[in-house]
Sequence to fold (373 residues):
Amino acid sequence: MSDRIKDVRVVLASQSPRRADVLRQLGIVPEVRPADVDEAYEEGETPREHVERLARSKAGTVFAHEGDALVVGGDTVVVHAGNVLVKPADEAAAVEMLVDLSGSRHQVLSGIALAWSGGVVGSVAMTTVRMRRYDRDMAEAYVATGEPMDKAGGYGIQGLGAALVDSIDGDYYAVVGFPVVAFLELLADSGFRYAFGAITPNPWSDVMTVPAVLAIDQGTTGTTCLVISVDGRVLGRGYSEFTQYFPEPGWVEHDANEIWDVTRRVAQTAVDAASDADIRSIGITNQRETVVLWDRETLEPVHRAIVWQDRRTQPICRALRTAGHEAEVRRRSGLVLDPYFSGTKIAWLLESDPAIRARPKPVIWRSVRSIHG
Fold:
């Protein structure tokens, strides 16, 4: 066990002196191994997706040659008025970039990733920067210092460029290029602890199993399962989408058996990834007001689930309102008359589907909290 609590060797997969400076400010002296990766955008890729993918790629590429280390990768872009600002091509471009930024807000997206023997994880921090109003003469004077030329967006908040900044909303260090908060959160999620000047394995890593919870989020378009340790780390995860059915405009349906199969599969994926987890309980959240009818004897669904978004029962709600029942519905249920809620969906299924009306066997229905016959 004594070997496990030694400081972790940290490798920075970046040639950015600013990222190295931030790590040193945290008391961590990294070995610098710049990653050689293609930084071109993939088709349809958003700036947020781009910086996380590159941060992961850099960390993973270097880890392939530094297998006993914790490798840190990063990438940063500046977005102004929907346009990605890169490093200025020359001094004239830098001046124009800075003049365009004057008096406006822009976003800095800073990706951070860790690669170690347990895998590769990544995150993105976004900070909004508001620039002071300054004129072209001030922009030219700043460019003449040479500081903007190697920086995306054409300024450095940690240097002379601080004089151009009015305020920020978010992590200052994300603007520098190394989002400290996101970095520390990734460390904790990955089983490491920042020990004020060093990174060490979390004590839970020294036991055979870790108490954990299996969390299942059964959502509208897919199911996510996480295995979460007692100290808040994500030990395993799984996700899969399932089919959306749109029989008519405004109608949305799901296959209940497919949801069950997908949920079992992604739960197994998460559990398999968390080999050291001792799962003590399961937490479930699922779709609100989505309705399924089941055969009481076979327990098979007799119709596709009507999803909470579905609007097919607007005529039923309108008829109840016209008949003067709205106040009584609200008195009994506390709800407004709207297709969102499950009551009119159940009525539609029982009254409008000939196959259900013709069934000789009774059915049970299920919404988010209860089962009824």
